[in-house]
Amino acid sequence: MLDILRKRRSVRKYKDKEIEPEFIELLEEAPLRSPSSRNFRPWRFLFITDRAKLEELSRAKTSGSSFVKGSSLGVVVCADENESDVWIGDCSITSIILQLTSQSLGLGSCWIQIRKRMHSSIITKSFQRSNLVVL
Questions:
Q1: What CATH number is given for 2-122 in this structure?
Q2: What percent of the chain has pLDDT over 70?
């Protein structure tokens, strides 16, 4: 684990290569194994591989998210704030679990904070309550 932590970096430039389906399956499993307060598990995950959707996500903020369009996978981590009073912490934990899992698989990733950050007028209110992890 310490080796994974030592090697993890925020990566914003990606190879033009699809991620193996078995890696995506592992990435889908990893955040589901994350701890959550009182085991409420308030999170929802959208795994996005469609290049057009990734390009849309790259415009989620006026700055700091443009590199998403060069990725092969984007994971939107969101939650219903009415399900848990500590949903932000719970979703943050799942996001780092995703990053560490991607590192263990030899994939680069970068966290993009959207909640309470400047965003474009095309982003819906639900995306304002999200974190975005790009793998």
A1: 3.40.109.10
A2: 85
